[in-house]
Amino acid sequence: MIQLIECPRDAMQGIPDFIDTSIKAAYINQLLEVGFHTIDFGSFVSPKAIPQMRDTAEVLEMLDLHKAQSKLLAIVANVRGAEDALQFEEIDYLGFPLSVSETFQQRNTKASIAQALETVESIQNLCEVKGKEQVVYLSMGFGNPYGDPYSPELVAEFVEKLDQLDVKTISLSDTIGVADTDLITKLFEVQINSFPHLTFGAHLHSRQESIQEKVLAALKGGCRRFDGALKGFGGCPMAKDDLVGNMATEVMIETLEGEGFDLQLNKAELGEAMKLANSVFH
Questions:
Q1: How far does the signal peptide extend, from start to end residue (predicted)?
Q2: N or C: which end of the chain has fewer CB within 10 A?
């Protein structure tokens, strides 16, 4: 079964002009009608680092969750953020960005990889107490622009450490859109064969014309969990100056359905969400 994760947080976070809280909530409420597995809806991080997400708690209060089937995921970058997020019963997953690149870990969370792994352990302990699940994003998981060491074997070392910490879901993240199809297939194949008890996701950034081939490559490698954002908006503001957008969800849906997967989405509500995206991200 495919898990499709819609990421309005990732789509919004790099936009310099503040999006009104009520507009954010209205958009996420529309996304909740579609039937995605999870909505990555906000983050509990420093407002200085990501000003756009300073109203995540207020947005959460405005969400209509009484009949929503989708789970909610919030990104955190440290233990304090995790503690803030865990005050809300409505949140199912905490996402933490752990980087294979030392340079990017410092840029993204102002911590070393070693410190970040300690944070992952602390957050995992908090999640287990509260009955929540941590999703770790292995950013720069397909290479980096900084000249830092990278290999599929290095990724496997990170997965091994996360497995020892009892993290169950790991999203391999191509933060800057450098992965080719062969690497995508190989990386998922190796990790899924080595750690069959874990769930591996694909959080790939891509130019529009490469989305279909990247989805097919991840599928071939055994991946069944995909992150995207409608219309391909967003990208990581901490990575490089030129943002490579998220995988456009509508293209992923078309590709996955073309491969015979029934995603059980409400297409009418999806159409409304696409229209709303145009006004939110104008």
A1: none
A2: C
Tell which residue, 96, 79, 80, has the closest CA to residue 40: 96
Tell me the average pLDDT of the chain: 93
- DSSP letters for 57-82: HHHHHT---SS--SEEEEEESSHHHH
**Residue 139 bridge partners (DSSP):** 99
pLDDT at 235: 54
What integer pLDDT is reported at residue 241 of this predicted model?
A: 40
94 DSSP β-pair partners: 74, 134
Mean pLDDT for the stretch of residues 219-244: 76
Provide the 10 A C-beta neighbour count for residue 56: 25
Which tokens is 189 given?
A: 């194949």
Is-contact 185 149, C-beta < 8 A?
Answer: no
**Nearest residue to 208 (alpha-carbon basis) of 255, 163, 164:** 255
Residue type, 101: S
Question: Which range among 148-152, 178-182, 232-236 shows the weakest confidence by mean pLDDT?
Answer: 232-236
**42 DSSP β-pair partners:** 74
